[in-house]
Amino acid sequence: MTVLLSLSLAASANAHGLPADVVIGPDVAALEALEGAAGPSGADEWFLAQRLGPRQTGDLVALSGRARAQAERMGGGASTFAALPAWQSLGPTSLGGRVTDLVVDPSVANTVYAATASGGVWKSTDSGSTFNYAWDAAITQAIGAIAITSAGVLYAGTGEANPGGGSASFPGTGVYRSTDRGATWQPIGLAGTNRIGRIVIDPTNENRILVAATGNLYVPGGDRGLYRTTDGGATWTQILAGANTTTGASDVALDPADPNRIYVTMWDHQRMPGSRRYGGVGSGLFRSTNGGTSFTRLGSTLPPSGTNVGRMGVAVAKSDPNRLYAIAANATGNFLGFWTSTNRGDTWTQITNTSALNSSQSTFGWWFSRIFVDPVAPQHIFVPGVPMLESSNAGGSWTSNSSSFHVDQHAVAFDPRVANRVFFGNDGGIYRSTANGSLSGSWTKTTRLGNMQFYTVAVSQQDVSRISGGLQDNGSVRSWSAWGSYYGGDGLQNLIDPTNHQKVYACSQNGSCGRSTNGGNSMSGFGSTTSDRRAWLTPVVFDPSNPAIMYYGGNRLNRSTSSAQSWTAISGDLSRGSSGSASYNTISTIAVAKTSAATIYVGTDDGRIWVTRNTGSTWTEIGTTLPQRWVTRLTVDPTDANLVYATFSGYTTGDPAAHVYRTTNGGTSWQQISGNLPNAPVNDLVLDPQNRNALYVGTDVGVFTSTDAGATWSPAGTGLPVVSVMDLATAVSGGRTLITAATYGLGVYRLDVGAPVL
Asked: What are the Sortilin N-terminal domain coordinates in residue numbering (predicted)?
């Protein structure tokens, strides 16, 4: 995808009609044409497979919660690294990532709040031109919904209800309230709800609040359904439970003329490690006419209870409460129907299914399922989808945006203080209209919103201000060109030649990669590689002694001696064999010894580790005694080809899983060096280039460091939010070591470790 075209392309090269040994070049038009093939699922498959594994089950929320608690305890204790300076945010702030909800302050001019998928809450005081972080860095960064009272009291529901797609979606820890417009936040309950889809405040009694909790995406049961408080969050009551243990509430609306009339959509769904079920008999639209004492499932032409009913959305017209709208996807994510009612939901008319309406939801209607109604014009509506849809006649006809703004729409907010000012939130940030949201009008994008989700980061060794990285839904970007995108698709592996930073490399999903000799101003495709399968994030690395030599990992290892212009396979299938997925059972990490270029280590996503000491002529498996989990990183000591570190991802239920191992004899034996690390996925391990005894790991709960070979670990530096760190890069500038972190939700951070102690 380009910046404006962001759907995940979750197919392999074969799905493009190309031979298995051909890698797609940087043909943006081709990427755009193929973008809807599998919808926003590739990244989610990649994240989930790492964290659970294909044969494991478990409660990711409980496991990640325990890991966060461990990390917080480590951060609060005495640390031998307490003298380290604070992490500094490097942005980018000019792009903007996924926005899940928006509200406009009704009592303070030009003030807008944005809920983001994994980057907290952001606040604008200049009518959406720029935003500043307005959340607590020490708590979950996943926000699913936000609401505001007439006096400016904010309520945020944590945990993204969108069930994993264009990126991984993360769980939350309940509802939080701010009485000082985002300066501070306090938890007010529903900690077990996991994911929250909507918060609605009664305009006649603002202590009465409704929360639609979709519940745990992976594990049945727990707190889910529709909840109500009548005392501003001091106490909560579940007023509608699901028909079964996998049904929660995803959307809720109040009749503004009669707040005892409540409309709520229930959603029966569950995500498993190897599959998803995004519909079921519990899904449907329900109504209460007595404030929530009882509910009735609405019928007429609405879909009856059945296994094919998926996520639904509902909206009430503020200026005409008789008029309602509903939308539904089926269990696989395809468009199921759109309805309107003119008698408060007693009967419904199904709107004729047009190609614009149907195609707007693509094959993943569960990523959207919202409707927004103009507060002063009851027939003027917006329906989020891949594009935004607009109708001025209650769905009789539709207008679709073309390229005015980024795709994958999620939120709409009308400014109650300024007529015709409307804000849209999508996977590319926030856009403002002064023409009542007209899709044929002009739009202004915010110029500062730093909720970017980075998979990888690369740093120039000649000029540390030159940074590139791969972004979920926003391509590969480069700091030396105002963080502009220089390669399309979901941005994944990025590399900068350590000897010449004009030579840069970038990949999109499933190993479609490009190369440049002019800093990314122009790109050409990699030469053909040989592989049967390629991962969502296909690893590409340099030989540390000669960056013209490169390695590319599908399920076979490919080697280039011409800076990626041509490739030769130097291995057979190093995975455990195909499981039927085009992007699993692949190489996940590659490491080349600096002191012995013929020595190459390879790890796979299905738990195998191999070594060759003759540039691929023969291979020896060396990880059979290690956990058979996703190998996230292999790192070779620059002075010793036999000293290797291995990191792993993957929770196991109730097991204090090991994450980091070390071998000093090239894999003959391994020692666990996880020490006191939190029980969380370890995504990367790097060595201080000036002090090989200083290790740094990026985990789902921050960055940690050790100088005693992993016996003990401490948080690295201070001030890094509790956010997943996907990748680390090192550089030396002026004799000082810099650690650069790619976070999945808050952009790039950097820690100045300083000069080595002599």
From this structure: 175-298, 557-674
If one counts every other C-beta atom within 10 angstroms of the C-beta of residue 432, the result is: 21
Q: How confident is the model at residue 758 (pLDDT cuts 50, 70, 90)?
A: low
Tokens of residue 303, six digits: 């879909």
Reduce the DSSP state of residue 397 to 3 states and report it: coil
Say which DSSP state 689 is in: T
- Contact between 472 and 453 under an 8 Å Cβ cutoff? The reply is yes
8, 166 in Cβ contact below 8 A?
Answer: yes
Q: Which helix (H) or strand (E) holds 309?
A: strand 309-316
For 647-704, the pLDDT digits (tens) are 998 766 555 566 899 999 999 999 999 999 988 889 999 999 999 999 999 999 899 9
Give 697's strand partners: 685, 704
443 in Cβ contact with 432 (< 8 Å): yes
Q: Which amino acid is at 556?
A: R
Phi, psi at 335, each rounded to 5°: -60, 130
Q: Which residues contact 695 (CB under 8 A, 6 or more apart)?
A: 645, 685, 686, 687, 688, 705, 706, 707, 709, 710
DSSP string, 412-455: EEE-SSSTT-EEEEETTEEEEESSTT-TTS--EE-SB----BEE
CB 471 within 8 A of CB 507: no
Query: How many angstroms separate the Cα of 260 from the Cα of each of 148, 197, 214, 290, 735?
Result: 20, 20, 22, 5, 67
Burial of 301 (0-12, 13-18, 19+ CB in 10 A): exposed
The per-residue pLDDT for range 589-630, each reduced to its tens digit, is: 999 999 999 999 999 999 999 999 999 999 999 999 998 889
**Region label for 96, one of left (φ > 0), alpha (ψ between -120 and 50) or beta (otherwise):** left
| Alpha carbon 141 to its chain's center | 11
* Tokens (6 digits) for 596: 């012995």
The SS3 assignment for 20 reads coil
> CA 301, CA 299: separation in Å to the nearest integer?
6
Centroid of chain to Cα 181: 26
Question: Can you tell me whether residue 131 is helix, strand or coil?
Answer: coil
* Terminal-to-terminal C-alpha distance of the chain: 48
Report pLDDT digits (tens) over 226-265.
999 999 999 999 999 999 999 999 999 999 999 999 999 9
In whole angstroms, what is the distance from residue 596 CA to residue 641 CA? Answer: 6
Q: Which helix (H) or strand (E) holds 358?
A: helix 355-360
- For the beta sheet containing 524-525, the strands, ordered from the edge strand earlier in sequence to the opposite edge, are 494-496, 504-508, 512-516, 524-525
The percent of residues above 90 in pLDDT, for the chain, comes to 80
